[in-house]
Specification:
It is built from 20 helices and 23 strands. The chain is an alpha+beta fold and about 500 residues long. It folds into four domains: about 100 residues, Rossmann fold (3-Layer(aba) Sandwich), CATH 3.40.50.20; about 70 residues, 2-Layer Sandwich (Dna Ligase, domain 1); about 240 residues, ATP-grasp fold, B domain (D-amino Acid Aminotransferase, Chain A, domain 1, 2-Layer Sandwich), CATH 3.30.470.20; about 35 residues, no CATH class. The chain has an eight-stranded antiparallel β-sheet, sandwiched between helices. Strands 3-2-1-4-5 form a five-stranded parallel β-sheet, with helices on both faces. A hairpin with a 5-residue loop joins β16 and β17.
Length: about 500
Amino acid sequence: MPFRKILIANRGEIACRIMRTLSAMGIASVAIHHRLEAAARHVTMADEALEITGETPVEAHLDIAQIVALARSVGADAIHPGYGFLSENAAFAAAVTAAGLTFIGPDARTIALMGDKVSAREFARANNVAVAPSVMASDDLGDFVTRASAIGFPLLIKAAAGGGGKGMSIVRSASDLEAAVRRASGEAERYFGDGRIYAETYVERPRHIEVQVLGDGEGNVIHLFERECSIQRRFQKIVEEAPAANLPGGLRDEICACAVTLATAARYKNAGTVEFILGGDGRFFFLEMNTRLQVEHPVTEMVTGMDLVRAQIEIAAGLGLPCSQADVPVDGHAIECRVCAEDPERDFLPETGTVRYLSVPRADWLRFESAIAPGHRVTADFDPMLAKLVVHAPDRAEAIDRSIAALDDLSVLGVTTNIDYLARVLGHGAFRDGALHTGFVPDHADALRRPEPGHDERDRLLIAGALGFREFREAAFGLPDLQAAMGGWTN
């Protein structure tokens, strides 16, 4: 292993996750943080911690030159980008390599090719991987509207350089298309600095299936099977599982083979994820490729027993793939729930506050990936995801039951979260039956809404709230000084 020290160009739970593997491998970790994060868990957990400067924490975490310079200053051998921030930034990968360091991920050429949705789609089409009909926006808005309308409705408008649901909308009629195009382009420019958008055929009630791949950069690629990521709100995932529910074996093999074909053609190096949309008729189309570690990678680790961060590091070090395709194991079922600071009753609006109390269930079949602790401040500076609750079981039914039980035992007080909502999603009959699609959340909105408390529950809540006030406790249970001195004795 040529790496002695690795700087993690990220924060929060993914930084902590990477540090665990680095510690197990005997590699020193270096954390970075804005001054507002000085007490964060990823900072205290690292072997070294460096402050990065910027007007806002996000600006600091996106400062390529500063991060590379800090890595060199402490003698780091490599940089792990985690996910988000600079993880899919080709310029960052190139700057790391130019500085004589190793970027733990694909090279800049591959990121530029597959990270841009338009070039990735063309590459997929050239390699006989099915892509939904689409048109790229042009400077002539009228021309684009005409060409997009010719595909037929409904259409999905998407940002060429982005993800996470930003710059994305569904258009069902020509009368709404022009306004949607203007809105999507503006949002894409605001979030990604790139206003390019395109329109593609929208598959009604699709499933979102993705395949984890590992490549050595020499044309050797294996897949670690698929994940189901269909439970989403506002185009962003909240529940993922592996393997996908009710997916016929032949279709699974076909989807995984397409992912390997694409990664092999790109001479892909390191970990990546090829995403597809799957229609009810069994047809599937290439969606995009994420050239990084995914948020939901733990479910793949749970069913395969592999450490994907270790695999990333070993591949970057030139040690090759961890195993052959025939040796990739699959055992049981895993479900991941994203615990977010948001209010499902108010259209999942992000929430802020301070974590006052945290109680996490513990079991050998459970992982709780987080960087929060009592006193942790949840601000609007970063994504609202606080943690990931990941459960493994022998089969899907038991994985659902274990996940619901774990969510019931999980307590995060001080900030509004979606914990109860996630339990309602998993307990819904359609989820248990595997009747999944990306419109699951809006389609079952009424059934998933928080039930009104009954009289008994309301009384318990009022009593619990009252007991939180010192004046009430003293008035209700306090004893006069004389009786208190006598141990509460009265005649």
